[in-house]
C-alpha cells in the first residue's frame, strides 16, 4: 500500500515512521522546505520510543503535493485544523475519484471543513474524508529528521464523512491502524476528542505562567493542579451530556485517557483528571507551548469547544463551563471564536436539530456552506 503523509511536524513524522516500519511505501509532503531540508535528499528518518529505535528510508520527501499523492492508496494529513482551508484548496487540484483522505488528527469535524474547502475551490470534487478524534501518537520531533514516539494510541475513535462511505474506507485505514474504532459518522470522533477536554483549561488557567516563562514548565504535570483538574472534570461532564442526546456512547475522560495509553488504570479509577494527569508517563516530559498562539487555543477552543457548545445548543443542552472557557479565550486572544462555529454549522437552512445533523453527516446530501 502506498501512503502519502502530509505535514512534517510531530504527527507527520510519527505517521511516516509508523507506516514505513509497517512495510508500506511512504511519501512525505511538507509545505515548508525548511522543515525537511536536513533529510530531503537522504529521505531518511530516525526514531525511538514505543515503535523501537532505528531509521527508515522514505520513497519521497518534498514540497510537490502532486508528486507526493499520485498513486497513493491513502492520503494521511497530519496538519492543524486551522490549515485545512489551505490544504483543501491544494488537494482539490490533485485528488482523483479513487482518493481516500484521513485526517490524523481530525480537529472536530475537520472532514467537513476539508470537504467544504475542496468543493469551494473545485465544485463537484467528491472524495471520502475520514478523521481521528486525536492524533494517533504522542510524539515530539527532537531534531529535524528525528522523532520520539512515546505512545501509539490504541482504539482511536474514528469516523468517515460521509458515513455512507465508511465500510470501504474503514477497511483501508485498518491496514495501518487495525484497532481504530469507527462510529456511524464523524460525530463519534468529534465528541470523543480528548484535547478539548483538557487543553483549554490547562492553557487558560496557566496563561500568566505561559506568557511570563515562555512555556518553561512541564505542561501536563506542572500545569495540571487539583483546581485545573476539576475544571477538566466539569468540562467532561458537559461533553458527556452532549454525547447522550446524540446517542454517542462514551466513557469519562479519565477512562478514555487510560484506554489511549496516556495514564494508568489505577489513576483513572479515581475519576480525577488531576490524578490521571500526574500518572501520565507518555506526557510527563512534554513542555508547555511558548505562547498562547498555539493549537491548544486555536484548535481546541476555536474549533472544538465552540463546536461542542453549538451541538449542545442545537439539542437544548446547556454547557456553562465550556461556554465560559470560550468567552475567556475570546477575550484573551481578541478573537470571536464563535463565528467559526456559525460558519461550520451553516450546513443548510433547515438544519433544525440533531436528526438533521445526523442525516447530513451520514449521507452528505446537504450542501455545507464553504468556510
TrEMBL record:
It comes from the Bacteria. SUPFAM superfamilies: 6-phosphogluconate dehydrogenase C-terminal domain-like, NAD(P)-binding Rossmann-fold domains. Residues 184-333 form the Opine dehydrogenase domain. GO terms for molecular function: NAD binding; oxidoreductase activity, acting on the CH-OH group of donors, NAD or NADP as acceptor. Keywords: Oxidoreductase. Transmembrane segments: none annotated. Residues 2-101 form the Glycerol-3-phosphate dehydrogenase NAD-dependent N-terminal domain. The keyword Oxidoreductase applies. GO terms for biological process: glycerol-3-phosphate catabolic process. PANTHER family: BLR6086 PROTEIN, OPINE DEHYDROGENASE DOMAIN-CONTAINING PROTEIN. This is NAD/NADP octopine/nopaline dehydrogenase. It comes from Georgenia thermotolerans.
Amino acid at each position: 500500500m502506498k501512503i502519502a503523509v502530509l505535514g512534517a511536524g510531530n504527527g507527520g513524522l510519527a505517521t511516516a515512521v509508523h507506516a514505513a516500519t509497517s512495510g508500506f511505501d511512504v511519501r512525505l509532503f511538507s509545505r515548508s522546505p525548511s522543515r525537511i531540508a536536513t533529510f530531503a535528499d537522504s529521505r531518511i528518518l530516525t526514531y525511538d520510543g514505543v515503535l523501537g529505535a532505528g531509521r527508515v528510508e522514505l520513497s519521497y520527501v518534498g514540497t510537490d503535493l502532486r508528486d507526493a499523492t499520485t498513486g497513493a492508496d491513502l492520503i494521511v494529513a497530519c496538519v492543524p485544523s486551522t490549515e485545512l482551508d489551505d490544504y483543501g484548496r491544494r488537494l482539490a487540484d490533485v485528488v482523483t475519484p479513487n482518493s481516500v483522505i484521513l485526517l490524523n488528527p481530525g480537529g472536530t469535524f475537520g472532514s467537513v471543513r476539508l470537504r467544504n474547502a475542496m468543493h469551494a475551490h473545485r465544485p463537484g470534487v467528491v472524495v471520502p474524508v475520514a478523521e481521528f478524534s486525536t492524533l494517533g501518537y504522542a510524539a515530539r520531533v527532537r531534531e529535524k529528521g528525528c522523532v520520539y514516539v512515546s505512545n501509539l494510541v490504541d482504539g482511536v475513535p474514528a469516523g468517515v464523512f460521509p458515513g455512507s462511505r465508511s465500510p470501504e474506507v474503514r477497511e483501508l485505514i485498518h491496514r495501518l491502524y487495525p484497532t481504530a474504532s469507527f462510529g456511524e459518522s464523524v460525530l463519534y470522533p468529534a465528541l470523543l476528542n480528548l484535547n478539548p477536554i483538557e487543553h483549554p483549561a490547562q492553557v487558560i488557567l496557566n496563561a500568566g505562567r505561559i506568557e511570563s516563562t515562555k512555556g518553561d514548565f512541564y505542561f501536563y504535570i506542572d500545569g495540571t493542579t487539583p483546581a485545573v483538574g476539576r475544571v477538566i472534570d466539569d468540562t467532561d461532564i458537559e461533553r458527556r451530556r452532549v454525547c447522550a442526546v446524540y446517542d454517542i456512547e462514551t466513557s469519562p475522560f479519565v477512562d478514555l485517557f487510560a484506554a489511549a495509553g496516556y495514564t494508568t488504570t489505577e489513576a483513572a479509577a479515581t475519576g480525577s483528571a488531576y490524578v490521571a494527569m500526574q500518572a501520565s508517563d507518555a506526557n510527563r516530559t512534554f513542555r508547555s507551548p511558548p505562547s498562547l498562539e498555539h493549537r491548544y487555543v486555536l484548535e481546541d477552543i476555536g474549533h472544538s469547544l465552540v463546536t461542542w457548545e453549538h451541538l449542545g445548543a442545537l439539542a437544548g443542552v446547556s454547557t456553562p463551563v465550556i461556554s465560559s472557557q470560550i468567552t475567556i479565550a475570546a477575550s484573551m486572544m481578541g478573537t470571536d471564536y464563535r463565528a467559526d462555529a456559525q460558519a461550520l454549522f451553516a450546513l443548510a437552512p433547515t438544519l433544525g436539530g440533531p436528526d438533521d445533523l445526523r442525516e447530513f453527516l451520514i449521507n452528505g446530501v446537504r450542501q455545507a456552506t464553504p468556510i
